[in-house]
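Researcher: I'm preparing a figure for a lab meeting and need a structural model of a single chain. I don't have an experimental structure, so a prediction will have to do for now. The sequence is pasted below. Please return the structure as tokens so I can convert it later.
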Amino acid sequence: MTISQLARANVLALEPYLSARRLGGSGDVWLNANEYPLPTAYQTHAGNLNRYPACQPPGVINNYAAYAGLSPEQVLVCRGADEAIELMIRTFCEPGQDAILCCPPTYGMYAVSAETFGITRRTVAALPGWQLDLAAIEAQLTDVKLVYVCSPNNPTGNIINPADLKHLLEITRGRALVVADEAYIEFCPQATLAGWLADYPHLVILRTLSKAFALAGLRCGFALANPEVIQLLLKVIAPYPLSLPVAEIAEQALSAEGLVLMRDRVAAITDARRDLAQALSECDCVLEVYPSESNYLLARFTPESQAFKALWDQGIILRNQSSQPGLEDCLRITIGTKTECARVITALRALPVAAERTRGEVL
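Model: Understood. Here is the structure written out token by token.
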């Protein structure tokens, strides 16, 4: 018997999520992972590395609770929001019995995590404008334990209509948990659902330090929920999810000074996003640039420009979204430095465009 024959059947059939690093490339302009383009200056002085860290470091929990406007009992810290996605499945879903539901185009790890644990994955395609198809969701809720909704949505960048989210929470009450992924919420803080937790005990919110906090390499994320949910997640989480250096840097990032730096970054990225959107809209190979409330832009390109490969060959690495439903010929572009964004525009201006096609026309 081979090693592969010993593996679980669902793992053998699994199509893995390809992160930006796993996709490879040999570029010098990396705009495919929604990272902040410049390093942060946090330092770690963690001592006593011979001792295990706390499962839930009080400094991190208390700082994040204060930042989110919640009590510490409503906060769980973990190894990135990706771990929180899995923790929800491991805590609430029975393999071979329960299902999750998500609404593509959206973040791919919801589906991959479910399939890894033998949980059925159901999808309800988003409506035009990438809003929720609430009637179709309600029709698919049988045996669904978790509904994953990303707002701002990755990769489209749009906020989900708050009235639709309230409707979703009403139709799932007593039936399923709604997991609202707010990885990019710092770019539109007014859209957070954190204030809704008191009214909806089945709401769970995912957060991260990877985006606006510029700490993607730290792997630190959070689940925000009512205490009953947090206590269940604590039964499942690894004994020591955060190393001492990670906890120390996370606590610094969530200090008063760290929050000022984060908001400065958000303002700078927002300005750069506006400028890049304008420049993209003036490129002949770009059919449409979609509004965004995040640190990236989604744009649709003329097929003949072969923009993804053309820029890849020049060392400019973007994220191809063409395999997602409704996103044919779409690329997601992380907001980089001014120099990096200028490289993108210069490269795009040189790409060929069919004479019979006009900008703004989507075929």
